[in-house]
Each structure stands twice: as structure tokens, then as C-alpha cells.
DNA sequence: GAGTTTGAAACT
DNA sequence: CAGTTTCAAACTC
């Protein structure tokens, strides 16, 4: 502990322990000093362990060591009994370790003190090196954590945490805890983790009822991130070392539950910056047996150990714009930063979980950008992972996660990618977007490796989300579909040097602002829809078939507006006067207004349904005419994304691409910001949803649109836009003017955008 | 899957 | 504001 208080306290304590008086007292007390305890491996030992922790003297260190030793011992010792007891001890040891960490300032002292106690136990079983190593590392890590203001000391250490957190403030607090612990292992769990507590009790009953434990823990874990939980499960199940003592496993489990990918040893290594390289090396060498430690030698790796890998993979998988919990993200961030505390950090996670289970849905944190959706699974935005990496990860695990609000956990089963896709799709389908929801669930296809393939695949499927393939734009320009849609790039994206990721949030937002400064409507939906038939839209537009129009109009020269090159066509809208296209043959409506399939339908139907139908018809016709990819709305029913809301309602089919999965984004900037921005505006990705006309009942119309802006008005506002001015500007200009007709930006209202958040 | 075409976006 | 370049999607083979 960096804190002087601790050090002060510790030193006296250590002195006290060292003092003959202390030894004398120990001899008198029914409880024997840790050393003796260690030998006995009995509950008493546990209680003792707690005591030393209080004192923070070398005993503490010994305990730490013992903990690790215990692990090994367990490994060596197949006996369940020992394991259970040891586990208890281990827990105690951990606590002790924590305490020691606080005291750790004098690492040398710890080591020294540590040696004797440890030697007794360990001598037989393990090489002292490990213990020393562990002891050293732990205290360091702990110290580190303590030093960091942010570090969640309490949460980090499941049972241990309590002691740790308390220790920060006062050592005394530790004492009671230790006492409790001494009585029962479970006591620790009680203090901090109810869920854990159960587990511990189970331990006693059976050494390794891991599955049960996992299942139990899973519940707890789910809230944090279902993925993690599963990952943990996998870890446990897969754990190559059955040997791992119960205690060890338990502690690990806790850590794992906490979502900390890094195992204890690993964590230590990460924290290594504090540790001296030489020491660490020695220790690792000392313990060749410990896979985790050895593997973890690489400080750069988040997770080395097998179990940790699974977890890490899972986390990596969750990449997308949305984060499960900020907490998680924060944690990860911390980890990345190196600030993350070791095992302690993990434990903290646990704590958070059980405490915050409620929180899970969503935290509006400062980091909000990451967390878009409440309850949405988080993609480790915090972790800056290259899309490439993610791809790699995919193979191992479902790289991308779907962030479904609420139930993310359910979806994150470590199943095959297809299953995930399906589950995701289902989830998305099941999940209706609440008007309040900022985020729109997006589903991604994990199975596909190449973006194109994915895209195509998804195209067929209404659900698919778009993925970009940017190579030079860094996904920070409107060229990038993801960026344009206001969403972060995700694993499936094949982009290179992508900056459109949560890690680069600042850059993304800055760029976004910059672009908006140039063109306020840059992120506005490209297609504007009118509730009523086109007449409003433009002079000619009135003739145009589609109720919706492209805000800027197209500029097609060669495609005759019959291919997706044409944004109007792509959006399923007819060309309007604003269009400068040549040889327009837009199936949805020619610029000259000649071909309007929809006109009739639209005129008749102002209602959503009617409009939709019209759209569908138009689309169908278009297909017929063009033989293009587009499918009529028929896809709609299939679309997983069908949202209760209008946003999603539009048939994606019109576009070859399914609407991209987007996170709900509030204002234009909002996509990235997500909830931060406060208003749960309906966000639509301009994206392809926009393009498709959506008839949105007024009710459904985003507040922004309703309240303020007639869409048209918004359009007009664009100062810069040459094109920006909507062709329908006439329409838009007067919201009230035309009977009830409303022009609505399908996509998220970008206008209020950027500013609100920051 | 690679290469071409296309038009929007960005730049000058 | 117009012209040019850049870019990535759409498309073709």
C-alpha cells in the first residue's frame, strides 16, 4: 500500500509480532500463530491466518504464501478434505495477503517473515520459491491497487476484498473479518458475496462441486456479463488442472466470476511493474508447474492461463459499440492501463456483480459512450482490439457479442457461432425496442469471416448488420458505413486501421463533430419520409411515387438510378427534383416523376400499415422491374429486428443490405454516445433503415422530430449542404402547413446531436 | 475472391 | 461553387 497510513500501521504491527511479547501471547492464546496453523492445516490455522492478517506482519505474508501453496498442495493432494480446509485457509491466506499487501511496503520484510512460516508447510510440498513469489507479487499488486484511487478494492477481492477494502481504511476492520473467517470459510463469503457464500458452504459439503458452484455463481455473474460467466464455466470445466486445490480454484473462481480475465498469478504479473523483474522471474521459474503463472509471464497478455483465455476470449468477443456495463469496461480499462489490480481487482468485480445486479441493465456512466444499451452486452470497447484480432478471436469464440439489452446474458452462450447468430436474431426479434430505449439491438453474424460474405449472407437475412471494409478512411469518414451510421465498427468489419472504436471514442466524436460542422445533416438520415404521399416533397416530388425522398438527391450518371449505387434507389425512394441524376429510371420514382409505383398506395394510406404496404409493393415492383436483389417487405416478418418501434419497422429488404445493427443513438452524435446523451431518442441509424421509408405513427416518431423539428426544418437548417437542403424543403419548411403530413427523418435525429453530451 | 464500376464524400 | 480526387460499396466476372 502506498498509503502511509497502512505502512505506519503495518510497521508497528509487524514489530509487535516480531516482538517477544507477541510470540509469548501467541503461545498463551488458544489460537496458535499462523506458522503453527500452517502446519496443522486445520480450521485453527484458518483462524490464525486471520490473526496474522490483522497484524500484517510477516505472518500475513506467510499466509499469502500458504494460499498459493495450498493450491499446489491441493493439486498434489487429491484429498478432498484437505482441499476444503485448505480452501478455507487459502481464503484466509488471501485475506492475509491483502493485508500484507497493505503492509507490503516492506517487501523484503514480508519475504523474510514469510519464509519461516511458509517453510514449514511448503517445505514438504512445494518449493519455497512459489510461495515467495506469490507473497511478493500479491502484496505488490495489492499495494498497487490501494494506491490507485479508482481501484475497487472491496469489490476486487471477493471474500478477501472485504479485508482489503477495510484494510485500506483501517486494519482493525480486518481483524473481525479474519476472526469470522477463522470460524468459517463461509463467513468470508457472507460478508462480501452472498453468492460466493453459497459456494463456500458447498465446498465444505463437497470439495469440488464446481458445476454447481458455477451455476450458482453464474447467476451472480450473469449480471455482469453472461459471457464472462460462461467463460468461467468453460474455464472450470476445461481447467486442465484438476489438481488445483479447491481453495485455489475457489479463489480463482471468484476472480473469474468477477470477470477478471487474469488469473491470480497473471494478475500479479500484470502488476509486475511494481514487482521487480528479477523476483518475478525467479518465482515463475520456481513454479514451472503452474501453468498460469508461467503462461502469464508475458505482461502484455491479459490472460494467459487457460481459464483466463476463455474469459479473455469472451470479453474480446464482446466488442461492439455497446458495453455491458461500464463497470466492466472500466475494469478492463483499468486492467489495460495496468492500473487494474490483480486478483483484488477480480474480486471487486464479483462484488460489483452481486451488488449491482440491478445495475446491470445499464449504467449511465461518464463512459456512457461505451455503454449504449442498458443491459447490453458489452463489447470490450474498453479493450482496444483490432478488428483483426477480433476476427482471430472469432474462431475461438463468438467474437462479437450481441448487445441485447437486458438479456444479454442469455445470448452469450458459448455455443457455436451459428447458434449465437440465431439466438441473437431471436433475441433481437423478441426484443422490441422500447421507445425509451436508446439502443437498438443489433445482431451480428459471427460465423462469417469475410465481411462481404457476411454482408451477403446477412443481406438475405433481414437481420444482418452492416460491416464496413474501409481501408484508408480509418472509419472516420462518411465513407465508412459504420461511422456514417453512428456506430462503432465491430469485429465483423474488415476495416483497417479503424478508429471507429470505443477506445477512440474521443477521436470518433471529434471527427463526427467536425463533419457535422461542415454539414449538420451529414449524419442525418438520408431518406426523409413523409407520412403522406409525396406531394409535399417537392415540386415534382409530389408526383414522385415514394412518400420518402432522399434528402440530398442522387447524382447518378451511369447507373440510371437502377442500382444501389444510387442512394435513392438504395433507400427505396424515388428520385426527386433534388436529384441531379441522368437518365433516371428509378423504379421507385423517377426524377421527372414519371414512374411512381407507390403513389397510389401512399395517397391512400397515411397510416403506417398502409404506408408499409405501399413500400412493400413498390419494393416488389422494383424487384420485378429490376431483378435486383431487393426483396419486398416480405422480409419484414422475418426480420429479427422487427421492433415494436417504427424505427425498425421498415423492411430492410428494400436494400440489399439489411439495416445495419446500430446501437441506439440519440442525437446525431448520439449513436456513439448512447445513453449518455440523456434522451432516449429513438435512434436510427441513418443507415439503411432510414433509407427505407418508414411510416411511423406520430406516436412513434422520435421526440426530437415531433417536438421540434419537422424533419424538413431540420433539413433546411443545414447551412452547408448544397444537397442538404431537402428537395422537399418546401415540405419540411412548414411543419404544419400540410394537412397532417409529416416529414420524418427516419434515422436518428442528428441535429441536436453532438453537443449534448459533453 | 479479385477486379471493375460507380457515385458519394472529401478535397482543392 | 465547381472540379477533382479519394474512397468504399456495389457490382461483375
UniProtKB/TrEMBL annotation:
Domain of life where this protein originates: Eukaryota
Protein name: Protein tesmin/TSO1-like CXC 2
UniProt keywords, alphabetically: Nucleus
The keyword rRNA-binding belongs to this UniProt entry's keyword annotation: no
Keyword Nucleus: yes
Family to which this protein belongs: Belongs to the lin-54 family.
UniProt-annotated stretches for the region Disordered: 592-616, 702-758
One of the record's GO cellular component terms: nucleus
Chief location bin: nucleus
The CRC domain, residue ranges: 464-589
The species this protein was found in: Populus alba x Populus x berolinensis
Localization of this protein: Nucleus
Sequence ranges of Polar residues compositional bias: 710-733, 747-758
Transmembrane segments: none
InterPro entries found in the cross-reference section: CRC, Tesmin/TSO1-like_CXC, TSO1-like
GO molecular function per UniProt: DNA-binding transcription factor activity
Compositionally biased intervals (Acidic residues): 598-608
Amino acid at each position: 500500500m502506498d498509503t502511509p497510513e497502512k505502512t505506519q500501521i503495518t510497521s508497528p504491527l509487524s514489530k509487535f509480532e516480531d516482538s517477544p511479547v507477541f510470540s509469548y501471547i501467541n503461545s498463551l492464546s488458544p489460537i496458535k500463530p499462523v506458522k503453527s496453523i500452517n502446519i496443522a492445516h486445520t480450521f485453527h490455522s484458518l483462524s490464525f491466518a486471520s490473526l496474522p492478517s490483522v497484524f500484517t506482519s510477516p505472518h500475513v505474508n506467510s499466509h499469502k504464501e500458504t494460499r498459493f501453496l495450498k493450491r499446489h498442495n491441493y493439486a498434489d493432494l487429491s484429498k478432498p478434505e484437505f482441499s476444503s480446509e485448505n480452501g478455507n485457509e487459502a481464503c484466509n491466506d488471501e485475506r492475509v495477503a491483502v493485508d500484507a499487501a497493505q503492509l507490503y511496503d516492506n517487501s523484503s520484510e514480508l519475504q523474510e517473515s514469510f519464509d519461516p512460516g511458509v517453510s514449514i508447510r511448503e517445505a514438504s510440498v512445494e518449493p519455497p520459491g512459489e510461495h515467495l513469489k506469490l507473497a511478493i507479487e500479491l502484496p505488490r499488486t495489492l499495494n498497487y491497487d490501494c494506491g490507485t484511487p479508482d481501484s475497487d478494492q472491496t469489490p476486487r477481492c471477493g471474500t478477501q476484498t472485504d479485508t482489503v477494502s477495510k484494510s485500506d481504511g483501517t486494519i482493525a476492520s480486518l481483524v473481525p473479518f479474519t476472526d469470522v473467517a477463522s470460524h468459517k470459510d463461509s463467513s468470508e463469503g457472507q460478508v462480501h458475496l452472498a453468492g460466493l457464500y453459497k459456494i463456500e458452504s458447498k465446498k465444505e459439503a463437497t470439495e469440488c462441486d464446481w458445476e454447481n458452484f458455477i451455476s450458482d455463481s453464474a447467476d451472480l455473474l450473469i449480471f455482469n456479463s453472461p459471457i464472462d460467466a460462461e467463460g468461467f464455466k468453460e474455464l472450470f470445466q476445461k481447467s486442465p488442472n484438476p489438481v488445483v486445490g479447491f481453495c485455489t480454484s475457489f479463489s480463482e473462481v471468484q476472480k473469474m466470476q468477477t470477470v477478471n480475465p487474469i488469473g491470480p498469478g497473471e494478475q500479479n504479473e500484470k502488476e509486475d511493474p511494481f514487482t521487480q523483474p528479477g523476483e518475478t522471474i525467479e518465482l515463475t521459474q520456481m513454479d514451472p508447474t503452474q501453468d498460469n503463472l508461467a503462461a502469464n509471464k508475458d505482461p502484455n497478455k491479459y490472460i494467459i492461463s487457460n481459464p483466463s483465455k476463455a474469459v479473455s476470449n469472451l470479453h474480446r468477443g464482446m466488442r461492439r459499440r455497446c458495453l455491458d456495463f461500464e463497470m466492466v469496461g472500466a475494469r478492463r480499462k483499468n486492467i489495460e492501463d495496468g492500473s487494474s489490480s490483480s486478483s483484488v481487482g477480480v474480486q471487486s468485480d464479483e462484488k460489483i456483480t452481486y451488488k449491482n445486479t440491478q445495475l446491470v441493465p445499464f449504467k449511465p456512466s461518464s463512459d456512457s459512450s461505451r455503454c449504449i444499451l442498458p443491459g447490453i452486452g458489452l463489447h470490450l470497447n474498453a479493450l482496444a482490439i483490432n478488428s483483426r484480432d477480433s476476427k482471430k478471436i472469432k474462431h475461438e469464440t463468438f467474437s462479437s457479442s450481441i448487445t441485447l439489452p437486458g438479456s444479454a446474458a442469455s445470448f452469450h452462450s458459448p455455443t457455436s457461432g451459428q447458434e449465437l447468430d440465431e439466438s441473437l436474431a431471436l433475441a433481437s426479434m423478441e426484443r422490441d425496442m422500447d421507445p425509451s430505449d436508446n439502443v437498438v439491438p443489433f445482431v451480428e453474424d459471427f460465423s462469417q469471416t469475410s465481411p462481404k460474405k457476411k454482408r451477403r449472407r446477412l443481406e438475405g437475412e433481414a437481420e444482418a448488420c452492416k460491416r464496413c471494409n474501409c481501408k484508408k478512411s480509418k472509419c472516420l469518414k462518411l465513407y465508412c458505413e459504420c461511422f456514417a451510421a453512428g456506430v462503432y465498427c465491430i469485429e465483423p468489419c474488415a476495416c483497417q486501421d479503424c478508429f471507429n472504436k470505443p477506445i477512440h471514442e474521443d477521436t470518433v466524436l471529434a471527427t463526427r463533430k467536425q463533419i457535422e460542422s461542415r454539414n449538420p445533416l451529414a449524419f442525418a438520415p438520408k431518406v426523409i419520409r413523409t407520412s403522406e404521399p409525396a406531394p409535399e416533397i417537392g415540386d415534382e416530388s409530389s408526383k414522385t411515387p415514394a412518400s420518402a425522398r432522399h434528402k440530398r438527391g442522387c447524382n447518378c450518371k451511369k447507373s440510371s438510378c437502377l442500382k444501389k449505387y444510387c442512394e435513392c434507389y438504395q433507400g427505396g425512394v424515388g428520385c426527386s427534383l433534388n436529384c441531379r441524376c441522368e437518365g433516371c429510371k428509378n423504379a421507385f420514382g423517377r426524377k421527372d416523376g414519371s414512374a411512381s409505383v407507390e403513389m397510389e398506395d401512399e395517397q391512400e394510406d397515411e397510416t403506417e400499415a398502409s404506408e408499409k404496404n405501399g413500400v412493400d409493393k413498390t419494393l416488389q415492383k422494383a424487384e420485378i422491374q429490376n431483378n435486383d436483389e431487393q426483396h419486398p417487405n416480405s422480409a419484414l416478418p422475418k426480420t429479427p429486428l422487427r421492433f415494436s418501434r417504427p424505427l425498425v419497422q421498415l423492411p430492410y429488404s428494400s436494400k440489399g443490405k439489411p439495416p445495419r445493427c446500430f446501437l441506439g443513438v440519440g442525437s446525431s452524435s448520439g449513436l456513439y454516445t448512447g445513453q449518455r446523451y440523456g434522451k432516449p431518442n429513438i435512434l436510427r441509424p441513418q443507415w439503411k433503415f432510414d433509407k427505407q421509408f418508414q411510416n411511423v405513427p406520430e406516436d412513434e416518431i422520435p421526440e426530437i422530430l415531433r417536438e421540434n423539428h419537422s424533419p424538413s426544418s431540420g433539413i433546411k437548417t443545414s447551412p452547408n449542404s448544397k444537397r442538404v437542403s431537402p428537395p422537399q424543403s418546401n415540405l419540411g419548411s412548414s411543419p404544419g402547413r400540410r394537412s397532417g403530413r409529416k416529414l420524418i427523418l427516419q434515422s436518428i435525429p442528428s441535429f441536436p446531436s453532438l453537443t449534448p453530451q459533453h
